[in-house]
Amino acid sequence: MITIVVLVLLAPLLLINSVFALEVATGLARRRKQQWPAPLGRTVVILPAHDEEAVIGRTLAALVDAAAGDFEIMVVADNCSDHTAAVARSFPVDVVERFDQERRGKGFALAFARDRMRANPPHSVIVLDSDCRTDRESLRALSGASQHLQSPAQAVNLLEPAPSAGPLVQVSSFAFLIKNLVRQRALQRLAGSVHLTGTGMCLPWSQFDAADLATASIVEDMRLGIELARSGKHPRLIEDAVVWSPHADQAHTLGQRSRWEGGYLALARATAPALIGRGLASFSPRVLVAGLDLLVPPLALLALVNIVALGAAAVLALADIVSWLPAVLLATIGCVAAVVVLLAWWREGRAFLSPSALVRLPLYPLWKLPMYLKLARSGAPKQWQRTERPGGTGDEAPPPTS
Questions:
Q1: For this UniProt entry, which segments traverse the membrane (predicted)?
Q2: Which runs of consecutive H residues, i.e. helices, occur in 195-284?
Q3: Are 46 and 201 spatial neighbours (Cβ–Cβ below 8 Å)?
Q4: 387: helix, strand or coil
Q5: Which of 197, 279, 302, 332 is the most exposed place for a label (fewest CB within 10 A)?
Q6: In CATH, what number is assigned to the domain containing residue 238?
């Protein structure tokens, strides 16, 4: 009887592990290159920037060249206390400034840019973080796909490989790849919709104009994608488009993850049950998968919970309180998840995670344990913060992590 009770208690964890393993396995197969129609009309690339004078020049130098002739660029210098706007004005781009200390965050900056464009709206809008780099082919694929599908289009958003960085930074970059490439592929196949990641996303003007942008949510991009999917505008992963972000150093990586993961967990609690209920009520496997995906916590947290649960199940079995069945089930699904993650590393992640760093993968959950304890005590941060990068650069919003 006690064994049955323990199995019932472990059922949600077994389900979450199964969803994670299924997503990683499903996302291993690469999509064939797809040709999208050339974009029509005007597409504006918006770069929200907060105190980015150290990096905005380098970003714009590359972006102006990539966008030449096909795309317009607008920089939103948002609540800046440095020379971000002045640096941006040295390039052939539109620069607008916003000062509102009460309404801080990327969402408000995007809403401000939208208000400025309403007098002469473009056909589509691409959002790019101010420290990201991409290329002309990616911009054209994003804009062309979004216009052709009349739905949001999301580029593959990756961190630049950092083979000289510390093992924990490499592991974090690999977790980012699992979330933003492998699991996004799986969501496209299983749910017909992916998450918006905040940078490298393109929306037709009608959808951008109607979106609820003016929010201080830490995960405003993910929330926007879920809302668009609910309305029938399902974000599509465009693997032919790639956006690269610089990695944070080890000291700032933990703070970056704390902000985003806290916001993600809060969003998941608020939206996953409703999506799962809707999927079951409407007999829609795609909606159900979208809801189940939100139940999967970040990789390190999932590993920590699995370790604790497996340890507890083993102790109970050794004490003859329950049978070994709960521990065996947990160990089995844990091994399956570990195998598919290793396959993902071999297929996609070797440039991001060296073999010497790979062997330290089990230490990753322990590195993040203090962060989760702090989140449990204090909750998720309520406001957006700038993330420092090596060399003093920063980004607009913390990125998702697996």
A1: 295-318, 324-346
A2: 205-210, 220-230, 250-281
A3: no
A4: strand
A5: 332
A6: 3.90.550.10
